[in-house]
Amino acid sequence: MNTPLQIIAVAAWSITATGAAQDPASPVSDALRSAAGRAGSNFIAAAEEMPVGRYGFRPTPAQMSFGEVIAHMSAGNDALCSSIGELAAPKRPEVGAGAPKEKLVARLRETFQFCESALAEVSDSRLGEKVPYFGAREVSRAEAMVAAAEEWAGHYSQLAVYLRLNGLLPPTAKPSQE
After folding, report:
1. What is the pLDDT of residue 160?
2. pLDDT of residue 22
3. Torsion from C-alpha of 3, 140, 17, 178, nearest 10 degrees
4. Which of 75, 97, 144, 176 lies 20 to 30 angstroms, CA to CA, from 44?
């Protein structure tokens, strides 16, 4: 089984196993909505955790800075969630990586809110339909969904490492508040 299929299978199982599935006919779409919610919480908490003066931090010159990762994810969220949900992305003024922390965090929050609304009506019955993928080509809706989950996981782990390199705990490493 290749990695994208494994991700879908694990996501579908985890949603079903926890009883959180909202539509028994759409476990994959439900899993993506759940992943988007977790990603939004984790990304925003990580963005808030990093001190304002460290948004330019990059472990090596070849890597994106912390602020660049936040700006990249904001743009990516709008593009991916728009394609998956067939909802036009909001027209927003550009917020680049050099913008103040509060603007970057606010934009990140806005894009995860957009994802929530764009993904709300997605169902598994349309996983095979073609959707635009960053304007370069078309992929199946399922492939775009897996790509979104991979982006969220990969870039969150990147931010978690950046936080640790700055002596900070990433949100997912902190003790639960429950």
Report:
1. 98
2. 53
3. 90
4. 144
Q: At residue 27, what is the residue type?
A: P
What does residue 109 show for φ and ψ, rounded to 5 degrees?
A: -60, -45
Query: In degrees rounded to 5, what are phi and psi of residue 130?
Result: -80, 140
| Contact in structure between 119 and 81 (CB atoms under 8 Å) | yes
* pLDDT score of 159 more than 90: yes
Could you report how far apart the first and last alpha carbons of the chain are, in Å?
36
- In DSSP terms, which residues pair with 140 in a beta bridge? 130
Q: In this predicted model, which residue has the larger pLDDT, 53 or 5?
A: 53
* Predicted pLDDT at 24: 72
**Strand, helix or coil for residue 1:** coil
Q: Is the dihedral of CA 94, 96, 98, 103 positive or negative?
A: positive
Distance CA 123, CA 27 (A): 8
Q: Give the predicted TM-score (pTM) of the model.
A: 0.84
Q: In the predicted model, what is the mean pLDDT of the chain?
A: 89
Q: What is the DSSP string of 52-95?
A: GGGTT--SSTTSPPHHHHHHHHHHHHHHHHHHHHT-PPP-----
Tell me whether residue 81 is exposed, middle or buried, using C-beta atoms within 10 angstroms of its C-beta: 0 to 12, 13 to 18, 19 or more. buried
Residue listed under structure tokens 């909505």: 33
